[in-house]
Amino acid sequence: MSSHSDIPTTDSKIVVPKYSYYALGVLTLVNFLNYIDRQILPTVAPLMAKDLNLSDTEIGMMDAVLLLSFTVLAPLFGRLGDKYSRTKLMACAAVIWSFATVFTGFADKLPFSLPSISLLTISLSSIAVMLCLVRVVVGVGESSYTTMTPSLLADYFPPKKRGTALGVFQAAIPLGFALGYVIGAVLAYYFGWRRAFMIVGVPGIIAAFLVWKLKEPQRGITDEVPVQTQTSQEPFLKTCLKILTTRDWIISTAGYTALTFVLGALATWAIILLSREKGMSETKAGITLGIVTLFGGAIGTFGGGLIADKVASKRENGYFMVCVISCVLGIVPTFLALVSGNPYIYLPSMFFAVLFLFLNNAPFHAILVNSTPSSIRATSIALNIVLIHICGDVVSRSGVGIMSDSLKAGNLSFLASFANIFSVNATEKHLTAALMVSPIALIIAALFFFWGATKKSKA
Description:
The protein is an all-alpha fold. The protein has helices at residues 18-52, 56-72, 74-83, 86-104, 126-156, 159-191, 193-200, 202-212, 236-244, 247-277, 282-314, 318-339, 343-358, 361-370, 377-408, 413-421, 430-435, 437-453, and strands at 117-119, 122-124.
């Protein structure tokens, strides 16, 4: 086990070992592949829907169950990450989600079928049920990796460098989203949607080897508080209670839950919105959204880390304030991207919406890892994952699909009336009308982050 004892934690001029940057590069690469794998389904969803006769509800549920399994297992993996080798667990996770991604391409070709499901307003065909089960396995692998990585990076980098390090790591999210859109669109165009899944799953299996070989740093070695005071043998429930009563943790998690609601809704439905209700072909929609996400997301995420570290060095509430400002600035472009039918308006609006949405990533995760001691950091991240996904994008990914089908059938008159105020015919453009909940969620996110910025942290 590597101690990384050469990382100064109290000196004003911090020197970070080269190995920490190597580890950051490896972890970012695998996170990049993670989000490519995750984003293939929304990218090829229009073709899958035509081929397999899937409804918006079924498409939304396939993404939602991935997040649901991802979320439910997060506390387990968080606890394991606080006790055992994180690098080994994360490597195994990358193999699991990669194989499951490959399997998605032929899940409906198995020699047996599963029963269909009908529950209240949700109706899933047997094919949709099978695809949902495969996506559950993808979520299992992603849960392990995503839960443990911020904790590991916190042990590679001292507190005043974590915003930038997490910004680099989180930049893999928009880059993975972007390349997932482009690769998915191109592969589906030339080889079909099934082979697209099979091709993108292979690199993750190879990259898992690099994670397996990473050195495991000593927990808390870079923290300003001496390592010997960071150990804890508290029962799991007591640890959870301590985390849930930490002010910065709970307020920032609430804000990011609302933000995750928006990110999940747009991630699943943006391509279908462009191809169905704004007149683009599936291929053009995927490439266009990929380019927008690549530049807007990368600039926002990496820039957010640099800006947040500078602001936080001068203001104690700096990380919170960056989150507040970025949420407020994202409201108008998100709204215009939905309601405008003019590509000269909605495409630039999408760019700025993506930029401001992803600007939150690094400062939020810096708040998260700094709000709890190293001995329970992976558990705190796991609990955060539970809340932001159960109350955030699990709801929005499936809920938007359900609302879209309901609006198409002439229901949800209150939402249809709201959309009509902005000249959106909810029966014809039912997906646009359903997505209009996104700017409202951004307002809620900004209010929570502002609350976090108004009082000195007690954590």
